[in-house]
Design goal:
The complex is a heterodimer of chains A (126) and B (326). Chain A contains 3 helices and 4 strands; from the N terminus they run E-E-H-E-E-H-H. With 126 residues, chain A is mainly alpha-helical. In chain A, the strands form 2 sheets. Chain A has a two-stranded antiparallel sheet with strand order 1-2. A two-stranded antiparallel sheet of chain A has the order 3-4. In chain A, a hairpin with a 2-residue loop joins strand 3 and strand 4. Chain B folds into 2 domains: 182 residues, Cytochrome c oxidase, subunit III, four-helix bundle (Four Helix Bundle (Hemerythrin (Met), subunit A), Up-down Bundle), CATH 1.20.120; 99 residues, no CATH class. Chain B has a 5-stranded antiparallel β-sheet. Chain B is an alpha+beta fold. Chain B contains 9 helices and 5 strands; from the N terminus they run ααααββαββαβααα.
């Protein structure tokens, strides 16, 4: 079976010699990202508590780093990088579209319910 | 018979069939489609969690204060360390899985066997860690009082450090015993009785003048609000209804009941995925040892279960973020 793996990550910035080497490279990258998340999670720098688009900037950093990790797990561990563009789009865009839609509806509604409580229509703190 | 169609006239054309536009086997495609649908199930759960959290955005438990334990390091507060370890174990077992798939492409049976074995071990360590995490979460460590409105009152000393109920409450004489099937009406039973009553907590609280009540509401510094001594006493006496130790689906000592509900449901559902992944990996592991794929000259089955295994890792990355970090 002649399996051709695409061996470069970071848009060709790093190119590995073999597939095995690439796997270890991605592991190191994922470990570093997880390490950053954990350190930020433990120390929670006060400077990142500013509000940005409805959430703390720190939370946005966590979410973005998570999506970066998800990308490398899917692309390199699940070999999505070697699949045809059609398969990539079928899997990724379907999921992303539906998830964004669901998240928007539910989070919007959750925020609304919070406001109903806060504005004193329903007493909660007793 | 002349009328029956033998040729459709579309042979060799793009719509004539026999094409493989995605250049992937049937099994792999179906695994991808299953993964998409399972990803949507998980995101449904996580979105529901987000909904509840946005609903109680000013009163949600702070994960760093809930998950502080590490096995064998009793009594030390080490937030995040153990979960980070669990995450690393799962990523590591994902790596051994890719290495097994890679060895499968080279038809190297002994390497596939070794890496699959390591993957299974990683999965078992993860499931075991999760069981430990659950046990610690259910047991709880400080205890709290639930108010009539369903809010949680926790206890702190003058420095803001948490104080366990056992440190200041003295349990009195008990006449009432929990009703079990064996000591009462045979078809009736009730949950275990709490160690202390609310009255005992109140008198213990009155006897220790340095104690204060901490509510579940978060102030502008991102910390839980601590009440003054008078306010603490008043809240405890007028609103205190039930002593809560640990966590169950009805109430928990950390905060909103939904917090524990979602914790059990989402990490439980993920843990079940890991468990079934381990079982599937074991089946494939024995197939590898027996030489099934060696004879087939094709290790694609390892690749397919590998896809599932990586997906489990992928989901954990999100669960980790939304339960422990954000």
């Amino acid at each position: 079976m002649a399996h051709d793996h695409k061996l470069e990550i970071f848009r060709g910035l790093i190119k590995f010699k073999s597939n095995t080497e690439k796997i270890w490279g991605v592991l190191i990258f994922l470990t570093i990202v997880t390490g950053i998340e954990v350190v930020l999670g433990i120390y929670k720098p006060e400077s990142l508590y500013v509000n940005f688009l409805g959430m703390k900037a720190l939370n946005w950093i966590f979410i973005i780093l998570t999506i970066v990790k998800a990308y490398y797990i899917t692309w390199d561990f699940m070999h999505m990088r070697d699949e045809t563009p059609a398969l990539k789009r079928m899997v990724v865009w379907t999921a992303i579209f539906l998830i964004c839609y669901l998240l928007f509806i539910l989070l919007q509604e959750g925020g609304y319910v919070f406001d109903v409580y806060k504005d004193g229509y329903i007493k909660r703190d007793f | 018979m002349d009328t029956s169609v033998v040729n459709t006239g579309t042979e060799g054309k793009a719509w004539g069939g026999g094409q493989r536009p995605l250049k992937a086997s049937y099994g792999k495609l179906m695994m991808w489609f299953f993964i998409v649908s399972d990803a949507l199930t998980f995101s449904g759960f996580l979105a529901a969690y987000g909904f509840s959290r946005f609903k109680f955005i000013d009163a949600w438990p702070i994960a760093d204060e809930v998950f502080t334990h590490v096995p064998f390091l009793h009594g030390q507060e080490l937030p995040m360390i153990y979960v980070a370890f669990m995450t690393f174990i799962l990523i590591m077992s994902s790596v051994t899985m890719v290495l097994a798939v890679d060895a499968g492409h080279k038809l190297n049976k002994s390497k596939v066997t070794l890496y699959l074995f390591l993957t299974i071990i990683g999965g078992l360590i993860f499931v075991g860690s999760q069981a430990w995490e659950w046990a610690t979460f259910i047991k709880g460590d400080f205890g709290a009082v639930q108010t009539k409105g369903g809010n949680i009152l926790q206890f702190v000393d003058s420095d803001g450090k948490r104080v366990a109920l056992g440190d200041f409450v003295v349990a009195g004489e008990r006449e009432r015993v929990a009703q079990e099937r064996k000591n009462g009406i045979w078809y009736m039973e009730e949950a275990a009785l709490p160690t202390y009553t609310v009255e005992e907590v109140v008198s213990g609280f009155e006897a220790n003048s340095e104690l204060l009540v901490r509510t579940q509401f978060i102030d502008e510094h991102g910390e839980k609000t601590i009440l003054s001594r008078e306010e603490s006493l008043k809240r405890l006496k007028t609103n205190g209804r039930e002593v809560i130790e640990g966590a169950n689906l009805r109430a928990n000592e950390y905060g909103s009941p939904l917090f524990a509900d979602f914790f059990f449901f989402i990490t439980g559902f993920h843990g079940f995925h890991v468990f079934s992944g381990v079982v599937i990996n074991i089946i494939i592991f024995f197939n590898v040892i027996l030489g099934t794929y060696e004879r087939r000259k094709n290790y694609e089955m390892v690749e397919k279960v590998g896809l599932y295994w990586h997906f489990v890792d992928l989901v954990w990355v999100f669960v980790f973020t939304f339960f422990y970090l954000v």
